[in-house]
Amino acid sequence: MRKPISIFLLIIVVLSACAKKEQPKEKVFPVKVVTLTPKAISSTIILAGTVGSKAYSLVSAPVEGSIFRLNIVEGDNVNSGKILLYIMPVDQQNILGQAQADYEQIKTDLEKTPEQNRNELAEKLKEALERLESAKKLYKPIPVVSPIAGTIISKSIEVGSNVSTKQALIEIADLKQLIIKSAVSEEYISKIQIGQNVKVKIHSLGDGFLSGKISVITPGIRTESRTADIEVSIPQETRVRPGMTALIEITVEQKQNTLIVPQDILIVKPNGDKFVFVSENDTAKMIKVATGIESNTEIEIISGLNNGDKVITMGQENLKDGAKVKLPEVIKPVKGEGKSK
Question: Would you say 77 and 71 are in contact if contact means Cβ atoms under 8 Å apart?
Fold first, then answer.
């Protein structure tokens, strides 16, 4: 009788063991955190602009004619009032040309005429020469002067070039008063001010920045673009020339001693609510937050987090509220390790 009882007891033990299902272990997610401490944050805008000059002039032809004399070359520095060139007006040029042609024709005829018949032609030649000399004294080239002091940036004419009235001839700019012209959206107008320092990047100069200062903000808004024109003054720089393209970096908001987190850790719900995960006692907690100023990579936290919170910055993609998390182990150096002998 003992043997059947033993077998029966064994079967009961085995069945009881099978009936007890093994409880699954709770999954633990590896994460990385940063401990929040107050920092500074600033928000900037980047504007495209073109280098110009505070003192600039495009000299044009006052009359139709031809360039009689040119007194400058590109790169020359000129004072206000300097004579840049002379233009012979086309009507005066025609009169002088006709007087010259008449004189040359009579002279040719005289040379072909026998000597005994030259008296009449000689008298006509004398009269033609007098008319030519009188025309030269009466009809002179018109001087064109520089309206400003500056540097000759470009010219589009040479001696003998024919020009029309109001045709652009010479470009002059004061390289000591360089500016960058741009436009700023109306939403930022109230956040910038005259005298504000900015950073300027000139494309052709590489990656370096120049310092600049906002010198003009126009009071009106362009209705078609909803922007206002601005000017940024920059220091004299021998490599910078009018016409170059530039970028202007302007700080529109900034705050000191505030809590900030990386923008890419924010979880934004379809309704616009924003959350971040923090680690408390190896547990992930989803915290609703309100945000403020944004920089290129970071964002201010106005409410929801506190100084000293451990915000999860890596591994949060698969987390849920209440999930178990594990922080990287901190390897403590062996006592005495790293000491120099």
Answer: no
In degrees and rounded to multiples of 5, residue 128 shows phi and psi of -65, -40
**Other C-beta atoms within 10 Å of 19: how many?**
7
| Predicted local confidence at residue 12, as pLDDT | 56
pLDDT in tens, 256-280: 999 999 999 999 999 999 999 999 9
Residue 126: CB atoms within 10 A of its CB come to: 10
Q: Which CATH number fits domain 28-41+257-326: 1.25.40.390, 3.40.1030.10, 2.40.420.20, 3.40.50.720?
A: 2.40.420.20
Instruction: Specify the pTM.
Output: 0.67
Work out the mean pLDDT of the chain and round it to a whole number.
Answer: 85
Contacts of 116 (CB under 8 A, 6+ apart): none
> According to CATH, what is the number of the domain 56-173?
2.40.50.100
